[in-house]
Structures are given as structure tokens and as C-alpha cells.
Amino acid sequence: MGKWRWGVILDAGSSGTRVHVYRWLNAARARQDAKPDELLSLPKLETKSSYTKKIKPGVSTFGDRPGDVGPEHLQELLDHALNIVPEDQVKDTPIFLMATAGVRLLEPIQQKALLSEICSYAQKHTDFSLPDCDLHIQVIPGETEGLYGWIAANYLLGGFDNPDQHNHGKGHHTYGFLDMGGASAQIAFAPNSTEAEKHANDLKLLRMRTLNGDAAEYRVFTTTWLGFGVNQARERYVEALMDASYTKAAHELLDPCLPSGLKTTLKGKVTDGVDISEPVLVGTGLFDECLRQTYPLLEKDAPCADQPCLLHGQHVPAIDFEVNHFVGVSEYWHTTHEVFEMAHKDKTYDFTTYQRMVKDFCSEEWDDISENVIAEKWGKKVDAKTAQEVCFKASWLINVLHDGIGVPRIGIEKSTHGSGYNGTKEVAAHAKDKGFLDPFQAVNKIDGMEVSWTLGKMVLYAAGQVPPSAPEAGPVGFGPNIGAGEFQEAGSNSNPVPIGEEDSWTEAAEDLAEKAHSRSTPGFLLFMLILIFVGYFFRKRERRMRFYRGVNALRRNRRPGSPRKGGRGFFGTGKLFGRSSGNYERVLEDGEAANEFELGDVDSDDNEHSDSSGGSRIGRTSGLATPKMNVVNFDSGNYFEGTAGNVEGVGLGLNHLSNVNAFDRAGLVVRTESRERLAPNLQMLGAGRRSRTGSPTRMKSPLMTPLEE
């Protein structure tokens, strides 16, 4: 087992599926290398941008044809993961597919058929660990998605590691989490102590495990609003426009949430409005009116059976913004940063500044916006469709944040900061030290790692691999805080895994590359690259032996009588290639071993036999056939191994001699005559006596001429 453990998770969203690959140190290795304070932390996960791949559309589009989801969708993602995870670790690497809002909208029978096909296909076409389809391949509720996101945010911000350094007041040290996709929105946070006690039955108990094996428990509230993602909200908004028009006939509808002058169909396709058989939306670019018309979509007036409620009549414990500081991901980040990347990149969320920027953007004429998109005024990521949608998305986000969830409408950029103030980096810095004190901040990556719910799921799995410090410790996972209910375990096994004596060449090469990156000396970097190449090239024994045979082939072309070095030096048989290669020469040169060879019956016309990897030697053997011999490692205890029974001799395990390869002094195959063809000459050579003179090795001496028939 190498020092790294790996995990693969597929985020099957409404618009596409994204595969994430993570790795972390083997728990035993991590505990061995950890400092005392690090033993109080969760396992440290790593990933890279190249470890992630997304394809479109989502798996929900295969609801009517589940049999196609494997070859047309999953295979590309599985191949990507298999190219990253070391081959010798695939069987120990878990794979998960967690479907979210898109698949939640399918009929139950379609969900079941689709998930069953996904699991079956993954089991047939990969060796990833997938022992339980129900646990590894599932549609996760929005509450679970929010909980995983909460884990990821607090893990990256440092809220778990050292509570004393993240004291937000009132004994609170964790951060709230907000997520918004295309179909749904989630919230997850740990209420203050008063609210936690008052609504204890509404919380989830989350149990993880630090490297020292101690349990780390948290009580978190999480809920989801299906239909409150930006795409579903837009559909509800357009329906409201149609209802307000009192007619379904084809005509133009004024849309304040589209840039001025832009015309689209109800589905969002840009059109000039001529000869269209369905209603056309005409943008007016009035952002204040857009805010007013999107507000009713919050459904703040829906009946609330369990006070207090936020949106759609769903119960949420009161949020104490003095201690509950939220981070928002997905649309919260894209809508506040993507279009305004050039002017607003990495700055903290300021309601006043943000609303002013959106109003200015949406009031521009669509023709001018289109030209600026082509000129990449807002960066390369902003295309025409993004610019078309941003006015509605921004109004929806502002309404959800401030009127829905209740985030205070305050400007949080300090006047003392200059125009180059980098708020997001300050957030991360504050979070590492004492925790940022802003009520809301949109984030995308922290310390180079994306804040994604998939990370939270894998952190939970990695924590479950840490052996518990007490036998009576509960399992890692989450379930009801009070009362009976299903406790969903992380799915990992905490049985101790031995520490490998050596890392695999792939892992060692990667580690060396990372260390070389951190050095500034060009010579050191070049040395590391050479070492990595050599290690990669020779990581398999077959490749080492093939290279060695090539070197010997060149050495055999030396002048007759020149001294033979016999495998000394770096490329000698006893150095790079191990003892199994280095002793062939000594065994055959001993004479006694060579004398035990007998010549098998071989067709005299067969000249196509060759060394097992050295290629054909037609034209170099004078028509002489090659007896074969199977060679095994000396370390296994058998010098030579056969398939048809052993022949008594010097204990070498020689078998049926028609399948025997004889090796010369350099370890290459010796060409010998068949028994019939050599019969006359054997008498001349004294073949009846077992002497060194008749040794096949000596027959290959460069001072001797080929035998004539």
C-alpha cells in the first residue's frame, strides 16, 4: 500500500456531471508524521485542477433511456479518473456518484432505473471499490448536499482545526454555508447555543474523527429550497409575466430583468421578434423594477407551520449574524464575480457597490453589451448568454440574500482600504487566524481548493478511515440529533492499513516534482526531472530487462578478444536489475551447471526462434534453433523454472529440454544445434563425456567458428 489513499466522486447536477479526484495520506502514515497539534486535525485532502472534469448535459437527460448513460456519459468520466489514480490503488479507491436537483425532479421509477444502470456499469467497467450501490450511487437530498458543503467550507476556512482561533463570540467557531445551483438552494449553519437548544430536534448530529482517533461532533441545521435555484426561479418569473399579461397570444412582454433592447423567446433564445409564433420578451433594463418583480418569488407570505420561517414557509432557526458568518458558493460566486471580474475580482461582497454595478450594466443597450462581450471587457469567461442572464440572476441573488435569508444590507468594504484592496484573500487570512467577521462572503476557492460539497463528502470518508481511539466510539457519519432515525455512515473502513515500505514510482515521482517546483535552482530542477524520468522508465522489471538486453546487444558487437566487463557498473546485472539477473553468468560459467544441459529434438529448419524480448535473429544462427528456458527470480528460491517437470542435475529445476533457453555469459540466449545435426560433431568434441569442452556456453566463444554440417 502506498502512502496515499484516493477517492473519486461524481457530482451529477442538473446541467452536467463533474468528476472530482481527491487524495490524502494513509491514516497510519499521517499519524506517524504528524506534529502534536496536527493530531487534533482532520485528514488533509489534496486535489488539483487537472483532477476535475465536467461534461454536459446531466445524467437526468438519460431518464428515458438509462441504458445509454454508461457509454455516452459515464465512460469519459471514469477514464479521466483512471488516468489519475495509480493503477495499483484502483481497487482500494472508493467511487461515489451523488445526484442532486436534476435527478430529484425525475419520477421515482426513472430514478431507480437510472441509478441501477449507473452502478452496474461502473462495477463492470472499472475496478474501483463499489461494494454498496445504495450507499455509493444515490440521489442525495438537498439537506445532505448542504451538510457536505458546510463541512467543506469549515474544513478549508479552518473552523474545525482550532476552535480557540475561530471564536466568533458566544462559544461559536464555525461558518455558515450557502449554495445556489440551477434548480435548488441550500443553507447550513450551526445555530447559537440558545437556538440550538430550542430547536434541538431540527438539527443533524455530525460525527467525524481527527487523526488521534478522537470523535469531533457538531450539531448543524440544514435545509433546501427546491425550485429556488436561478434557472427554476427564472421559469417561475416568466410564468408570472405571462399570467400578468392576461393573454397567451403571441405578443411582446416587457421584461425589466433583460438588458435594454434585448429580445428573446420565453426559453431565452435571442430573436429579432419578427414572425415569431410565441410571445417575445423585450428587455427594458430597469433593475429596480426587476428587484420589485422578483421579490414575490421568495414566497415570504407562505404559511409557516413551525416558526420561524424564511422562504416558502420552511422552518429555519433564527440566525444570529453576530456569530453566524456565511460563505456562498456556486451562483453566489459566479453572479457576484463572473461578469464583473475585471472590476470586482477578489473583492468582498458589498451590497451598495454591487447593486450600483449591476444597475449600470443592465441599463446599457444590448448592442453595446454585445460589443463589449466580443472585446472581452468583462473577461474571457463572459459570453453573450452569461451577459444576457446576469440581470435576473443578480436581482434574484440580492432578494434571496437580504429579503429571504436576512443578511444585513451593509457595505463591508472599509473606507480605509485603497482600490487595490483584496477582500477575498483577507477573508481567508482572517479565517485562518480568528475568523472573518463579515455576515456574508462569496467564495470559489480557498488555498487553491474549490469549496464544493463533494470535498465535504470525501473529508467525511477520509475521517472514517482513522481508527478510533476508544473501542466504544460511534461511527463516522450523520443522523438525527434527537430521537430514532437512520444514521448514514461515511462508508469507509477504519481497519488499520499497513504503511508501505516504499511509495510507488508514480507517487514518488510526483512528490519529487512538487519538491523541485519549490526550489529555485535550475540545476536542482533539472536533476529532479532526470531522476523522475529514470524512475518512470525503469518502474517495471520488464522494461529494465529490455533495456539491459539492448545494452548487451551493443556490447556483443565489440572487437573479438576485447575484455568483457560482465555486468559491472550501473547497468550491470547486479546493480539496477537485481540479483536475479546478476548470477546467470556465474552459474553458467561454473561449468558444472552448463554440463548438465542436454539438447532437445528441434526441427533443423526452424530458424525463427528468438530471445523472449530480443527480437528475431534470422541470418545470425546459421539455421540453428534455440532451446528455451524459463527464468525466474533468484530471490524466489528457484533459479530456473519449467512447465514439464524437473530434470535432476545441480538443483536448478531444469525441465523438459525442448523448452529450455540457455544463457551465455552476458545473460543472452545461446544458439545451439539440434541433437541430430550435431551428432557427428559431438563425437569429435567428446560429447559422451560431461566436460567443460562441450558446454553450450563455450560453443559461443568469439574465437570459435560456426560448425559446418
TrEMBL record:
Pfam family for this entry, one: GDA1_CD39
Keywords for this protein: ATP-binding, Hydrolase, Membrane, Nucleotide-binding, Transmembrane, Transmembrane helix
UniProt cross-references to Gene3D superfamilies, sorted A to Z: 3.30.420.40, Exopolyphosphatase. Domain 2
Composition-biased stretches (Acidic residues): 500-511, 598-608
GO cellular-component term (any): membrane
Segments crossing the lipid bilayer: 522-539
Highest taxon in the source lineage: Eukaryota
Region described as Disordered: 472-513, 598-622, 687-709
CDD domains (UniProt xref): ASKHA_NBD_YND1-like
Binding site for ATP: 182-186
Active site (record annotation): 145 (proton acceptor)
GO molecular function: ATP binding; GDP phosphatase activity; ribonucleoside triphosphate phosphatase activity; UDP phosphatase activity
Record InterPro entries: GDA1_CD39_NTPase
Entry's Gene Ontology BP terms: CTP metabolic process; UDP catabolic process
UniProt keyword annotation of ATP-binding present: yes
Low complexity bias spans: 612-622
Family of the protein in this entry: Belongs to the GDA1/CD39 NTPase family.
Name of protein: Golgi apyrase
The organism of origin for this protein: Mollisia scopiformis (Conifer needle endophyte fungus)
